[in-house]
Prior knowledge:
By secondary structure, chain A is of the alpha+beta class. Chain A has seven helices and four strands.
Amino acid sequence: MRIFPIESTGHSNAAACGDESGEVPKLDLPLVRREFLKGSGVLVGTLATGSVLALLAPSPVWAVELKTLSKNEGQTLMAMGRVLFPHKKLPDAVYALLAKDLDAKASGDAAAATQLRAGIAALNQVAGGSFATAAPARKLEVVKAMEGQPFFNTVRGQCVTSLYDNDMTFAVLGYPGSSFDKGGYITRGFQDLKWLPAPSREASPQSWAA
Amino acid sequence: MAKIDFSDDSAVVIIGSGAGGGTLANELCQKGIKVIVLEAGALQSSATFINDEWKSFGQIAWLDPRTTSGTWRVAKDFAGLPAWVCKTVGGTTTHWAGASLRLQAHEFKVRTTYGEIKGANLMNWPITLDELTPYYAKAEDKMGVTRTNGIPGLPGNNNFKVMHAGAMKLGYKEVHTGNMAINSFPRDGRAPCLQLGFCFQGCKSGAKWSTLYTELPKAEATGNMELRPESHVSRIEHDDKGKVTGVVYFDKAGKEQRQKARVVCVAGNSIETPRLLLLSASNMFKDGLANSSGQVGRNYMRHMTGSVYAMFKNPVHMYRGTTMAGIIRDEAVHDTKRGFAGGYELETLALGVPFMAAFLNPGGWGADFTEYMDNYTHLAGMWLVGEDMPRETNRVTLNASVKDKWGNAAPNVHYDDHDNDIAMREHAFRQGQRVYEAAGAIKSFRTPPYPSTHNLGTCRMGASAKDSVCNGFGQTHDISNLFISDGSQFTSGGAENPTLTIVTLAIRQADYIAKQMTARAI
């Protein structure tokens, strides 16, 4: 099976950005073989055929390798991420980034691992066995009851960067990211809005490029 | 570049290379005065700036440990990040949006104009708008401010079109693409704006004025300046006559260095500047340098701020183009019928998806939150910025329990909103939402304040040494060869984005320092 491992672009890798072109490196999507993925758990999924992401990705199948958490724990975190930030259009692959980043936190910090495992266990317990497979309304109740607790804050806080700082989310939400490498918007629609009256020339003078 | 010896005590040492420090350096160098600029951050360039919000934040933001206290919302949402300012050559002029507005005449006379306001430490500035006017003109020319000096305004982007349409319906009169220190046409050897939409991340086209590629290279070209990046000043030293003699700093290798100086000018932004004076306490100056008034670190102002994001049926694509080239100025007046003193501006603002997620509603989650994110391309955004009240209890202090990597106490920033700030924010939120409703918004959201970029007032200027830190030239009352050269000098905040006034004060201060040096007074 041809699948690609999902990598978060990360925040600190400023050095990788191109000086000349201004290009910011995109999500690297190499194809790997399933048997090369190891670790404590592997999350696998598929992108919906015909979706904007399926067109970008080399394969409709994706995989995330966990180093500390189990596959089940990873899936529970993904489910919690979807309750916290319920985007119908975002694929599971984005929520898998949340599991991956939290797994990285757990791998580097025993206290974080303990907190995450306890939180996941609590989610399952309150949901009556399996949080990930509980009914949507029940999931929301369970998460709401945990609001403000350290585990909740950890997961919610991680969502802000894990879910919203990656190319898949950019593509789904229609945000193009870097612009300098494409010449900015001076000739690419910075003032193409037509559904409101145009401002006067005095309020909004003509562009140098006009 | 000049090379100035550590033991040379004839130069002016400037701490910080942003709007205040960078401008002062160039102005002094043009007059033939030797200058050493010590900048805590590293050297970047338009080429190395990054069109990516988090990567850029990691590259240029000031991320040294800081703590917060008080009832302001920032202390809850961003406890370790009270301010969004920069640690890089060029300081926060790399990050600023370019809005360049003069303060209004009455904003220099707030105590007289507003009267006594309980819980506010209002004081008139020791200078007037008339005195500053010729210097404002010089600053606008230097920075290439649109709608001054015959420079055309910037073309409005989609986000401005929405603001403009709503403002017209509400009957607002002064609505345009702003007075921006961003080239609408090529000027001063710099390119025109490419409408990149990444003003906050360092301008990759160089159209936006920053000391990084204007004042500092011009200063360097005189042969009078030595710029030392990655030099973190930890202490200002003085002699037994109470004059400052030099500074101690950590260089990029982490090695402690001691630089002699004839004059020291502090321009580290309004958190680091008072922190450095407090860290420099000695047997002679037990409460910190220039602090006989007890006002160092007090009267911290950060502007009344907030944002409104509105959702529309049709696309806006607010992220395209100049971030802040759009303004409504009608509410900047002082009109107490609105229920508060002072005024505010409404300015366009946009964030990319990563920062929208972080700032739209910190701590927020659920379907209400994701609906805004799902409609990202259909959002318009504006920033509200107005005068906040100076309060003695809003202050920067040293937090002995948190140390930076050099072992010095981190600054704590304490802030409580004044009732006047709260009333103004409520009015501004309401008007901002009305603007978008008038333009056809489906719904709109009141976004709470971001970490402060307009940090002001912690070494205020005043007529008397009893209740202020420096005089009208930024010269400290207590130590004649120690100057405050950034927004810390502000006696009050005004409604306007402060950079133009910081640059204006720096130009004027350079004239004063040169005269005082010639007269051998310092």
